[in-house]
Structures are given as C-alpha cells and as structure tokens.
From TrEMBL:
Organism ancestry: Eukaryota, Fungi, Dikarya, Ascomycota, Pezizomycotina
Gene Ontology molecular-function annotations: copper chaperone activity; copper ion binding
Protein's name according to its UniProt entry: Protein SCO1
Source domain of life: Eukaryota
GO biological process: cell redox homeostasis; intracellular copper ion homeostasis; mitochondrial respiratory chain complex IV assembly
A single Gene Ontology CC term: mitochondrial inner membrane
Binding site for Cu cation: C164, C168, H257
Residue ranges constituting the Thioredoxin domain according to the UniProt record: 126-292
C-alpha cells in the first residue's frame, strides 16, 4: 500500500511545481513596466489599469494617485517652526495680553464705582447726620427757590459772602473753572447747577449778589433770604457760620463759615465734599465720575 501511494505523491508535487512558474509569468505580464505609468495619467487609462488588476486578483483598496508623498506631507521647515513655537502663535499671545489688560481696567473701574456708590449710600444711613434738606430762599430775580429746584441735576453748593476778603474770591475762581471744565466734559449738557448761598443776608441783597457773581461766572445761581431762612439752610447742610443776627445799617462785622463745596445728586442726596485742597482738575474728575456713574445706571437727568 505504501509503494502504491509514493508514485501518486511524486506526481502531485511535479504538477504543483510546474503551475507556479506559469502563475508568476502571467502575473508579471499583467503588471505594466515603469514606462507604462506615463500613459496612466489620463482617466480612461487608469480605469483600464484598475480593471486589469481586478481581473488578476491584485486590486488595491486605495485608489490610484499620481500625487507624490512628498507633496502631501508637511515640509521639515513647517514642522520645525511648529515645534519651536508650540501650540500658541504670536497673534494668540497678543490677543491674550490685550484681553487680560482690558479685564484688569474694567474691574478696576468697576471697583472704584462701587466704592463711590457705597460711600454715597453710607451718607444716607440711619444714625448719620444727613447733609441737605428742605429750605426756602430767593434767587436774584426775587423768585422763591427751594430744594426741589436742585433736583434733576447735579448741584454744586457753596456758602460764602460778598465782603469776604480772600477765601471766597479764591474759591469762586475755582468754582468758575470747574463749571467750564464740567461743561466741556459733558459736551455742553445743562446737567450741572452751581449755587452760591450767602451767609450774610443783611448786606448781600439780590442786587449786590448779582453784581458780585458776574465777576466770576454767569452760570452761578445766587441765593439769599432772611436771617432765619439762611440759618435754616446752613443747618440743613451742616454749615458753620457766625454772622451776627441784629446789625445796624452800615455797621462793620466779621463773618466766619465753613469752606466746602457740597456736591448733591439729582435726587437731592449728598454725594461728596470738595475742599480747599482740591484743584479744579481733581474736583472735575470727582464730579464727572459721579455723573458718569449716574448715566451708566440709566437714571434720568434734567437738561432744561
């Protein structure tokens, strides 16, 4: 039995060896030469070549492409540049710096605004002396003027007298500069009301006040009244003055008073004091900060 199977195995081996060269020759004949790739640049030639590969069982899953690998890949210079700069470019770094600086400025401005608002609210708190309140005086035309006439605008109130030798003229010169600077900063909006209240009603009649205030600025509103009326307003604003009550006409006497400008908001509430240490520029800065805060909150302002 073994002798019978040996010739059969030898015959199968010779047949398999003879079929391999024929398969290799047929496969080699089906693969084009290097020169043939030139003719494959057209679409019909590529289609015919693909069908030949499929017929011989050698088709590829990828479509044929004449684009070289070097053209598709990044150049070494691009790769080195990316590795040297990392994931961030100079544009992204500049944007990051600008955004950070803007946020710092915003939060600083907002912090200052909240601090000003907190101080203004504290002045209205329970148990603290209130600055400002109801009063009745007369303007330079003889018309009645009350606290309601101050509302709707930011008012800038100063107490003095026309016979003051030095302090009042200096402060009124500063007041005149502040008026012009605020008017320039608000672009001419009529939202700032400068007021001069006399502490010497016996000598500061409407005619005397009008002539005196015109020497400093035409926008200053002068107010006067009886001794009791002036005293009441000074009490409302916590202003000290030592004017004698009963004086004879032509009698000379001294007057002492507090030296402050009182900034009041459009609702008639006290906001801040401007003292002798303040310059026109610093005072204007404080006033404009409060005006801009008021506008930012969308609150109304009277412009008549």
């Amino acid at each position: 039995m073994a002798s019978t199977m040996r010739p059969l195995v030898q015959m199968i081996g010779r047949a398999s060896r003879s079929s391999v060269p024929s398969l290799e020759r047929s496969t080699l004949r089906s693969i084009p030469s290097q020169n043939a790739f030139v003719s494959l640049r057209t679409k019909p030639a590529r289609s015919a070549y693909t069908q030949t590969l499929r017929h011989n069982g050698l088709s590829s899953q990828r479509s044929f492409s004449t684009t070289t690998f070097r053209a598709r890949a990044r150049t070494m210079g691009q790769l080195k540049a990316r590795n040297s700069t990392g994931p961030f470019s100079w544009k992204s770094a500049l944007l990051f710096v600008i955004t950070g600086a803007a946020m710092i400025v915003y939060f600083r401005v907002e912090k200052e605004r909240l601090a000003r608002k907190r101080i203004a609210e504290m002045s209205k708190g329970v148990g603290r002396p209130k600055v400002g309140g109801p009063f009745v005086l007369k303007d330079l035309d003889g018309k009645q003027f009350t606290e309601e006439d101050l509302k709707g605008k930011y008012s800038f109130v100063y107490f003095g007298f026309t016979h003051c030798p030095d302090i009042c003229p200096d402060e009124l010169d500063k007041m005149a500069e502040i008026i012009d600077k605020v008017k320039e900063a608000t672009k001419g909006e009529n939202i700032f009301l400068p007021v001069f209240v006399t502490c010497d009603p016996a000598r500061d009649t409407p005619e005397v006040l009008h002539s005196y205030l015109q020497e400093f600025h035409g926008d200053i509103i002068g107010l006067t009244g009886t001794y009791e009326q002036v005293k009441n307003m000074c009490k409302q604003y916590r202003v000290y003055f030592s004017t004698p009550q009963h004086v004879n006409p032509g009698e000379d006497y001294l007057v002492d008073h507090s030296i402050y400008f009182y900034l009041m908001d459009p609702e008639g509430d006290f906001v801040e004091c401007i003292g002798r240490q303040d310059t026109p520029d610093s005072a204007t800065k404080v006033i404009m900060e409060h005006i801009n805060d008021w506008k930012r909150e969308g609150k109304p302002l009277r412009k008549d």
